[in-house]
Amino acid sequence: MTGSVTRTITYGPKNPGFSALLSFIFAGLGQTYNGQLSRGFLVLAGTLLGILGFAPAGAAIWLYGACDAYITARKMNEGKVPYRESSIIAVVLFAAIWVAGLLLLSAAPG
Fold it and tell me: Where are the transmembrane segments (predicted)?
């Protein structure tokens, strides 16, 4: 008797609230937690460029990023968006880049 073995890989669900919180604290970090590193950098770049050019635009992009992180995590859990495994290394490095940038800005003369 021959049969096929099907392996199902089950991932833990994403936490939409945690994802939104990460992106609210550090713009783009929620996207990185969701496994969307490129999208995280786009949210970060948009936020920074917006803040440098026109603060309300930067704030709007930042808030959009938090909402996007929440919605994407929820849709991943519902199977509406392909699930992406998040890398703890990517999340930590992304946060470290944020902290390093803040330290450089605070140390800049002027």
Answer: 41-67, 88-108
Q: Is 99 exposed, middle or buried (0-12, 13-18, 19+ CB in 10 A)?
A: exposed
- CA-to-CA distance for 23 and 40, rounded, in angstroms? 9
Q: What is the 3-state secondary structure (H, E, C) of 43-69?
A: HHHHHHHHHHHCHHHHHHHHHHHHHHH
Instruction: Output the CA torsion sign for 48, 54, 60, 61.
Output: negative
- CA torsion, ordered 24, 27, 28, 34, to nearest 10 deg: -10
Torsions phi, psi for 14 (to 5 deg): -75, 150
Q: Which two tokens stand for residue 101?
A: 């940038």
- Please say if the pLDDT value at position 10 is more than 90: no
